[in-house]
Amino acid sequence: MKSPTIESESYVLRPFETSDAKLWQQWDIDPEVQAFMPEPFNEPQDIEEQYKYIEECEADEEGYFWSIETKDGVTIGTTALTEFNDYHGVANLGVVIGDKNYWGKGVATEVITALVNHVFENLNIFSISAEVEEGNIPMMKALEKVGFKQDGLFESARVKNGKRINVHHFSIVKQ
Fold it and tell me: Does a structural domain hold residue 170?
């Protein structure tokens, strides 16, 4: 689905652009950026594969995908609302702040707030979920600041560095 542009005080959530692909190539192989991603560590991808991914996201009927950009045009991360189910009114949230210069500055909290507000006001969504790997305390805190509540723990749900780890499940429900 084509993602609408959403603005917060400091950031713009905009649809993916082909220029984003070069940043993704850097973020996809940065072990610090990938530390809490659900997939195994990524191998470097050809730029054409990144372009193909952008096309796939635009064609996805069960998701919205955005790049996170500062008001002065610096792309610093991505966010997505996936597994969108219009019948049940549910979706899953994912956020990656790829530019480490913006870590610890409240970006995730501001972006998630803007996204949740937009979704609850404009889409047929009543509940948004997010999964956070154990140890990702900053993301857990950001979700809680926005109003998400931890409503589950998936014990040993993923493998990271050869060890089983827990995944925390959070959700927010439209009031």
Answer: no
Residues 6+ apart with CB under 8 A from 66: 3, 6, 13, 14, 15, 16, 78, 79, 80, 115
| Paired tokens of 65 | 């995908």
Structural domain includes residue 11: yes
Please check whether residue 155 lies inside any domain of the structure: no
Q: Where are the alpha helices (DSSP H) in 19-153?
A: 20-28, 47-59, 107-122, 137-146
Domain that holds residue 112: 6-129
How many domains would you assign to the chain?
1
Roughly how many angstroms between the first and final C-alpha of the chain, as a whole number? 26
pLDDT in tens, 25-76: 888 888 888 888 876 666 667 888 888 888 888 888 889 999 999 999 999 9
Whose CA is closest to 21, among 50, 52, 56? 50
Which neighbouring-strand residues pair with 154?
A: 167
Tens digits of residue pLDDT in 78-124: 999 999 888 999 999 999 999 999 999 999 999 999 999 999 999 99
Structure tokens at 155: 């014990």
Evaluate whether residue 140 is within a structural domain: no
